[in-house]
Amino acid sequence: MRRDTHPAAVVVAAIGLLLAATALAQLPAAANHYVRGLELEKSGQWQDALHEFVAAARLDGRSRLRPRPGGAAAAVGYDPHFHIARCLIELGRPKDAGPELRIAYNRAVTPREELDALRIRIEAALRGRGELPRAPGEPPVPAATSGQPPDAVPVLVPTAVPAEPTREPPSPPALPTAIAVPAAPTVAAVVSGAGAPSPTASFQPLEIPAGTRSSRRLLVGLAALAATLVAALWWLARRRARPDPTPTQATRVQDAPTTLVDGSTALGGYEVLGTLGRGGMATTYRARRRRDGATVALKVPHQMCLDEPTFVARFLREGALGEQLHHPGIVRIHEAGEEAGRPFLAMELLSGRTLKQELREAGPFPPRRALEVARDIAEALDYAHAKGVVHRDLKPDNIMILPDGALKVMDFGIARTTGGEGLTGTNLFLGTPLYAAPEMVDPKHVDHRVDLYALGIILFEMLQGMVPFTADSPYRVIEMHMRTPLPAPAELKVAVPPAIWAIVAKLCAKDRADRYASAEALLVELNRLLRDFPQSQGGPA
User: What is the pTM of this model?
Assistant: First the structure.
């Protein structure tokens, strides 16, 4: 902690972030339950739909960000209590439906006419059972039955009541503006049926307000927003006060000179704007295409690569093949070109965070999340391998996670084609030792299974927060990949389910013949495991 940072500010910031994070974390889960409830309700599965709406209401209550009249919830029609009431009336439980409808009236999200229509059904069902007194002269009304559509329930039409008795039967009085319901039970009671009042319980009229606002909720929300604002300001102040960290290979956007190594500011019709990152074989620049102003990522090989005979021809050949990789999980290569003996690749420019950055800041992933990321990478590998392209430098730095959660594998199509000699000669090792398969030391033995090995190391890192093999020398790391076995399950820092560990062990087999035969075979196994894997064990619903 810096000396110029007031401790009170740190406490307020922490509380604010905790409140905001806790509140916001409940919203996606509540929305998921709500959407599933709507689907079940549409198909007439009232009991299952009830459980989903109750779960949404419970999470909504925990979030402390409940919809208010006229708020954002009204725009999307989010009203679990209205649907709870509807499910309960369809299940023949009008007593429990009344309190839920009262909450729906208070929130004023569902249109008033729909609320009134459901209120009439509840009143009709209660009167039909004799559980709600009828007005003098009002004829009996049969109760609603489970599964009966709303328009099939008799509705009382209000008419005027004569001031004096006549020989004709009196017309029914106007419907009351309030339904007689017991006090609202808990959410758990609604599902189980526990806590429901007895048939002889007295009923009190329930007045339905046009809309109310809870001052307590408003104060809690304002306090959380204020604390979050304080936390953000404190974080920005700390960030400005400390020096910039040393750029690493995982840093994708950083301030850098806008010239190439030869001092030029343009290459092949692209104007260089800045440096995005440096790797073992090339530097990637942010550039603008002069003909249309589009911003792209421009990859330019290092001079040491250009000194190797035939490198330029092979680089352009592999780049042209990369242009044919059109997959949503692979970064698109727009153009492979050359100018004055210097080749380049113009690629899709992404905005997001690398998997390496996510792991560095968040630590180990929950098992399900790790499986989902591995599946997305395997899908990209399966497509590329089918096109005859092997990545050979798969690592978390080359995997981008976009703001919408989509995943993109970068630097595809420039490493090697199946059966080709690749971009490197015998004196240049292409790849990152931390993720290199044992056979990478001999390019003649490299095939698509080196990518599967690298994916196994990545999966290990996602589960443990660290790679299995590290040393003070890259040659020592390569030797460990060749001879040192993976840690035993009992030695792992974070416990891994046996089914997932079996996948990691098979991917990281020293002998490539013991690995999965293809990315397609791996995909089958990952999808099967994800289908059977409990949602509660480390992953979003």
Answer: 0.51
